[in-house]
Design brief:
CATH architecture of the largest domain: 3-Layer(aba) Sandwich
Shape: elongated
Largest sheet: 6 strands, mixed
CATH superfamily of the largest domain: Ribosomal protein L4/L1
Number of strands: 6
CATH class of the largest domain: Alpha Beta
Structural class: alpha/beta
Strand content: 5-15%
Distance between the termini: 15 Å
Number of domains: 2
Strand order of the largest sheet: 2-1-3-6-4-5
Length: about 210
């Protein structure tokens, strides 16, 4: 598999040979869907809290007498059938939303995503990506000159200038290879990988 090596103008200067075991996989939609859903679910925190009929503020007095009113029987205002009553099966803060995904499945899913990105011409390689100062304007101009607006940058070493310059750009994310998650790979229109980071990804997913 050959990936495009871009220059500073965003033009393909040459090609980089990448292993087919990582960038030449078949598109497995079911597996990609599974790892994306699992990643989002594992990031979810169980912080919802609802009250049951013991916890709501209410009186224990019987609303009206049992018989003779023509209305339905009622014992307490905390009944789940009443407005302001407690929930029958309330959500608790310790609710667990996590999904289990095996390492082999996760790696295969990431490889499938990378392969599809390469086939769609959404994945490219650069020698290096850096800015002279931690200025958002410098990085925005650099990416605009390369024809990139929504991009995930995967670099081998997080340069402080590059990281600080990217924080105010809503459609730009700079990460290390180990933090390149499946949701970000799918979300951004383009994925830009530095050459040293490409070697790290090959080592991680081999």
């Amino acid at each position: 598999m050959e990936l495009k090596l871009l220059n500073d103008q965003g033009q393909a200067a040459s090609n980089v040979v990448a292993p087919d075991t990582i960038f030449g996989r078949d598109y497995n939609e079911a597996l990609i869907h599974q790892i994306v859903v699992a990643y989002q679910a594992n990031a979810r925190s169980g912080n919802r809290k609802q009250k049951d009929r013991e916890e709501v503020s209410h009186t224990t007095k019987k609303p009206w007498r049992q018989k003779g009113t023509g209305r339905a029987r009622a014992g307490m205002s905390s009944s789940p059938l009443w407005r302001g009553g407690g929930r029958i099966f309330p959500n608790s803060p310790d609710e667990n939303f996590s999904h289990k995904v095996n390492k082999k499945m996760y790696r295969a899913g990431v490889c499938s995503i990378l392969s599809q990105l390469a086939r769609e011409d959404r994945l490219s390689v650069v020698e290096n990506l850096s800015v002279d100062a931690p200025k958002t304007r410098l990085l925005a101009q650099k990416l605009k000159g390369m024809g990139l607006d929504s991009v995930l940058v995967i670099t081998d070493n997080l340069d402080e200038n590059l990281l600080l310059a990217s924080r105010n750009l809503p459609n730009v994310l700079v990460v290390e290879p180990r933090h390149a998650d499946p949701v970000s790979l799918v979300f951004y229109k383009k994925v830009l990988i530095t050459k040293p980071a490409l070697a790290k990804i090959e080592e991680m997913l081999a």
